Amino acid sequence: MENQEERAAEEQASAAPERGLLHVWRSVGCSHQLYPERVLLSTPVQQVSLGEHHGLLLAQGGQVFSFGELSWKGLSIPVSAPVLEVSLRGKNVVRVAAGGFHCGAIIDQGNAYMWGENTAGQCGGSATNITVSEPSPVSVVDTEVVPPVSVRVVDLACGREHSLAV
Fold first, then answer.
1. Class of residue 157 by CB neighbours under 10 A (exposed 0-12, middle 13-18, buried 19+)
2. 29 in a domain, yes or no?
3. Can you say where the RCC repeats lie in this chain (predicted)?
4. Contact, 102 vs 108, CB < 8 A?
């Protein structure tokens, strides 16, 4: 009997539509939210990534939203009201990554964009100890060939003070 119930539950779960609903649960100070709370967004969410005190949402249609402590913008945005990364509007973002205090995105053409704190060069480029306040293109170049050639980025990961592109 248990197997039939388990199978029915599995079938029901697999038949449930994937709608891109966002839920959050967290500990804030002495307040603990033990059960997931749904966050209402106008667009279904396809991917999420969390940094130290911030996060990114990749919504259907390639839009990117940020929330949390966005120190590079001087903002603190609640998860219930994420802000659109306007400078990425019109670009079809296919992947996002949040690091310690920085962010990254890949658009469908394989170009990478980085923004946030850049104290260790984690946002790319040669200048460090600066803040990159808006998503900026980063060139990923294969220097092993002559002449050097730009490469298509297919995946991106961000750590505390470093970023990796595949």
1. middle
2. no
3. 62-109, 110-166
4. no
Strands 83-84 and 75-77, sheet pairing:
unpaired
In whole angstroms, give the CA distance from residue 17 to residue 71.
37
CB-CB contact of 98 with 83 (8 Å): no
| Phi (first) and psi of residue 8, to 5 degrees | -65, -40
Which pTM value belongs to this model? 0.82
Any domain includes 32: no
Q: How many domains does the chain have?
A: 1
User: Is position 5 within any domain?
Assistant: no
**Closest C-alpha to 80, from 118, 140, 26, 147:** 26
Q: Is residue 10 part of a domain?
A: no
For 145, the domain range is 38-165
